[in-house]
Amino acid sequence: MDPRTWATVDDYLTDNLLGSDDALGGAARAAADAGLPDIAVSAPQGRFLTLLAGMVGARSILEVGTLGGYSAICLARALPPDGTLITLEADPRFADVARGNVDRAGVGDRVDIRVGTALDTLPTLHDDAPFDLVFLDADKANNAAYFRWALELGRPGTVIVVDNVVRSGAIADTASDDPGVRGTQHMFELMATDPRVDATALQTVAGKGYDGFALALVTG
Ligand SMILES: C[S@@+](CC[C@H](N)C(=O)[O-])C[C@H]1O[C@@H](n2cnc3c(N)ncnc32)[C@H](O)[C@@H]1O
Question: Are the C-beta atoms of residues 68 and 101 closer than 8 Å to each other?
Fold first, then answer.
């Protein structure tokens, strides 16, 4: 299969299923204009996050890894007017771009961007917990630690989504010394062995390549 087909199908789905979206299109353009890396979720993946947050009736969402706010907009759209999304970003310049994007998208009143390395900001969130949904999408080397925090700040019923867990297939290389692969493999070990969690992971192909996401439900 030619990876260009994945991009063509993503474009087809975006044009014919999702429809035009000025806020998300504008957010992507603003992020590109500001020189941010092109590593946000795709439009279909973003809609998946919106639907998932709506399906679980999320009122309180935690995101680790804001970038320019693309996925934050998708998640915040599912919140009720008094709902909140706290999103953690290490780079203050990225956080500034995200602030503008979420405000222009009309969800700024629900989005709280906290700047700092996530392992420093996560321990400050106990008063904001429990979160109904947690989306982990930052530095993959720390995925196991972020997953532990998602459990700490969740409750039975919390849904945890982790992006980029397949890494073009590298996840299956048990001898890998890539920190992102190692961190994600460690996270899978925790997911598999923690009796409080049911989890799976799905491979995806998309305009942004071959990857996948993990989905976990806190059961106890
Ligand atoms: C894949 S991007 C997030 C994409 C975003 N979720 C989206 O789909 O629109 C990862 C982000 O995590 C941030 N990041 C990396 N390491 C971090 C850390 N230790 N703490 C907080 N944010 C971090 C990066 O600066 C980057 O903006």
Answer: yes
